[in-house]
């Protein structure tokens, strides 16, 4: 019989072979902010879980379908993931997960957060607006798992304050700078730990680290960010000018060798590149890869920072050309593909958010997982594996956090790096120009001592 893991772990259901997992996305992010000794007790604000699949945009006749296939550019050819595996996964979760209509944990609804309107993704704005329109429905879904206290009910139904998301834009004088700055250790003698700096310039383009095994509050120009235990980050664009700063940061973080990794090397590297896509406009500052391609820079320099035998994971879109580009990078890093994971997006009731075999919108995203080493080393991996993560989507840009799923494949005291990160992770290194985005305190709800915590 498969394991059904008690709440509130992010893993709601997992089969015995661990090839199928029902995961809660907001909880996976919160879980990754803490450690065994200092778990995160805060809850990240989320969008309401989808109640119904998206309206179909698929051609309604065979003739229309043929026309669509004829007009789609060759570069739009889809990279397929076995549909039978996705359907089988849905069926298995339906059979074993008995909380009907609740394929995710209760969510703390996001306050109205005013984003920076210049080039901000429309999808994020749409979801924030939907937070208001769907609040009653999502409150009802939450009640099925955990009835809120009176105080929490009053708070949820009240008018939440509108807050402006802080501008993390790195000054242009810094983005083009090739200078390598001294690391910044966020030292603090206070309890709880806190560090104050005057602005983004202080923390941009340099290695910044929380040296403590407890969380730390970073106040930057009056804005508070939650820095997880022993987390390190490089807040910079990913490009040719900043590559030397990253290499120096890696060497500074790991000046010596471990049992599995050399100087400045990592046992696990996770990438979520801003691929160009019809429906995915990942970041205005990256401008997607149509205008600039940070993957070209990474392809040239990242390999030296990947330890022998290390795992490399890369999220891709469903375009075959994107898959090919990712695999070309793997080849440049001497990384061989060993597994392929699919994140299948469902409604709160367990329906795919769109047709699995749809032409326009796929209800899944794919993660390529490779291991660095010779062909001989790959033989120990056995046959190529595919795994399915089933999860109800959160905000448009948020992926399931993989920490709780990937750690069992990694050595003890492993070294991990996330590139294009949009939040920090306890004990990991993160690199990107939005690494602090979801660590802003405005994205988090802190349970007061007088309230019942659901975490």
UniProtKB/TrEMBL annotation:
GO biological process, one term: methylation
Region Disordered, residue ranges: 115-155, 165-184
Stretches that traverse the bilayer: none
GO cellular component, one term: nucleus
Entry's Gene Ontology molecular function annotations: methyltransferase activity; nucleic acid binding
Domain of life (superkingdom): Eukaryota
Annotated family: Belongs to the MT-A70-like family.
Protein name per the record: MT-A70-domain-containing protein
């Amino acid at each position: 019989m498969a394991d059904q893991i008690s709440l509130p772990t992010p893993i709601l259901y997992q089969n015995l072979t661990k090839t199928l997992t029902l995961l809660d996305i907001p909880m996976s992010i919160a879980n990754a902010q803490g450690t065994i000794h200092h778990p995160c007790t805060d809850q990240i604000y989320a969008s309401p879980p989808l109640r119904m699949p998206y309206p179909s945009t698929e051609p309604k006749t065979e003739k229309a379908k043929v026309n669509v296939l004829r007009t789609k550019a060759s570069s739009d050819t889809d990279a397929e993931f076995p549909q039978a595996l996705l359907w089988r996964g849905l069926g298995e979760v339906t059979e074993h997960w008995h909380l009907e209509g609740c394929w995710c944990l209760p969510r703390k609804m996001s306050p109205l957060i005013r984003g920076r309107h210049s080039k901000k993704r429309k999808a994020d704005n749409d979801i924030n607006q939907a937070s208001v329109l769907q609040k009653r429905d999502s409150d009802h879904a939450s009640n099925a798992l955990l009835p809120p206290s009176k105080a929490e009910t009053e708070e949820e139904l009240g008018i939440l304050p509108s807050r402006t998301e802080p501008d993390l834009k790195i000054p242009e004088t810094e983005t083009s700078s090739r200078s390598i700055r001294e690391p910044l250790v966020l030292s603090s003698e206070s309890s709880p730990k806190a560090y104050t700096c005057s602005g983004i310039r202080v923390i941009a383009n340099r290695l910044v680290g929380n040296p403590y095994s407890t969380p730390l509050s970073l106040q930057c120009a009056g804005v508070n960010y939650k820095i997880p235990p022993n987390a390190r980050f490089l807040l910079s664009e990913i490009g040719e000018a900043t590559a030397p700063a990253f290499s120096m940061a890696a060497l500074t973080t790991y000046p010596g060798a471990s049992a599995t990794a050399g100087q400045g090397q990592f046992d696990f590297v996770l990438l979520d590149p801003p691929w160009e896509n019809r429906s995915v406009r990942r970041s205005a500052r990256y401008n997607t890869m149509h205008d600039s391609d940070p993957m070209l820079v990474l392809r040239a320099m990242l390999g030296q920072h990947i330890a022998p035998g290390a795992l490399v994971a890369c999220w891709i879109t469903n375009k075959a050309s994107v898959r090919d580009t990712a695999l070309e990078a793997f080849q440049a890093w001497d990384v061989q593909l060993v597994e392929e994971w699919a994140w299948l997006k469902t409604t709160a009731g367990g329906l795919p958010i769109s047709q699995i075999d749809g032409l326009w919108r796929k209800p899944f995203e794919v993660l390529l997982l490779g291991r660095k080493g010779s062909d001989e080393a790959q033989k120990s991996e056995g046959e190529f594996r595919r795994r399915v993560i089933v999860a109800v989507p959160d905000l448009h840009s948020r992926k399931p956090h993989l920490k709780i799923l990937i750690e069992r494949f990694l050595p003890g005291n492993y070294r991990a790096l996330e590139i294009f990160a949009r939040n920090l992770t306890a004990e990991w290194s993160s690199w990107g120009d939005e690494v602090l985005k979801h660590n802003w305190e405005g994205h988090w709800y802190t349970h007061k001592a007088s309230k019942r915590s659901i975490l």
